[in-house]
Amino acid sequence: MPLSSIEIIYECPSFLIVNKPPYLLSVPGRAEDNKDCLITRLQQNGYPEALIVHRLDWETSGLLVIARDPDSHRELSRQFQDRETQKSYTALCWGIPNLDSGSIDLPLRYDPINKPRHIIDYQQGRHALTFWKVLERHDYHSRLELTPITGRSHQLRVHLLSIGHPILGDKLYAHEDALEEQPRLCLHATELSITHPTTKERLFFESPAPF
């Protein structure tokens, strides 16, 4: 499991900031053929102390924080849980939104009948909030900046689907035209701001979308 495909953007004794490639799990899956993942590659290639703080979907690329000691892991995890971090994503979506920006406040839950999909459920779903802004408009698609306030699984993908603008290349949620428009899920974690767990300095990291 080589490390070469994982770009390390920032490194200090407390944590790493890495750029996860698409089609790589953040942590090992349950099946034996799903053991290759970002955290294992780091642990086996010079960072045996690496601890996962948060995750990105298998198909999603972009910025991830990796703690390097238990105290940093505890503090960084707390920042994510208490919503003290700031994250934004870039996505290419099908169609042209009428507005320049907006928000999507729809509750989500896992759909075991159609796993691993998630669905909107007003009775059993958990609160999920996403802000979006149009960056570019093209003939058949748009480039959006997405800011999730909550961190539900598949939140950005289901929320954009709910307003009629599925993410291009999304094999789980996109219709045929949107799926064929791009060879990969066009969702990238572009910006991330955290507080350094020991120095308390506010830090900002950026990774331009590769699409």
Give a brief outline of the structure.
16% of the residues lie in helices and 34% in strands. The chain is α+β, with helices and mostly antiparallel strands and 211 residues long.
Written account of the structure:
This protein has 211 residues and is of the alpha+beta class. It has four helices and twelve strands, in the order E-E-H-E-E-H-E-E-E-E-E-E-H-H-E-E. The chain has helices spanning 38-44, 70-81, 155-162, 176-181; strands at residues 7-11, 15-20, 51-52, 61-67, 86-94, 101-105, 108-110, 118-120, 129-137, 141-148, 187-195, 202-206. The strands form two sheets. Strands 1, 2, 3, 4, 5, 6, 9, 10, 11 and 12 form a ten-stranded mixed β-sheet that branches. A two-stranded antiparallel ribbon has the order 7-8. The model has no long low-confidence stretch (mean pLDDT 96).
Give the helices and strands as they follow along the chain: EEHEEHEEEEEEHHEE
Main beta-sheet strand count, sense and barrel state? 10 strands, mixed
Count of helical stretches: 4
Which percent bin holds the helix content?
10-25%
Shape: globular
Radius of gyration over C-alpha positions, nearest whole angstrom: 17 Å
The first-to-last residue Cα distance is 25 Å
Proportion of strand residues: 25-35%
Mean pLDDT: 96
List keywords for this structure.
211 residues, 34% strand, ten-stranded mixed β-sheet, globular, two-stranded antiparallel sheet, single chain
Question: What's the structural blueprint in terms of helices and strands?
Answer:
Blueprint: E1 7-11, E2 15-20, H1 38-44, E3 51-52, E4 61-67, H2 70-81, E5 86-94, E6 101-105, E7 108-110, E8 118-120, E9 129-137, E10 141-148, H3 155-162, H4 176-181, E11 187-195, E12 202-206
Parallel strand pairs: 4-11
Antiparallel strand pairs: 1-2, 2-4, 3-4, 5-10, 5-11, 6-9, 7-8, 9-10, 11-12
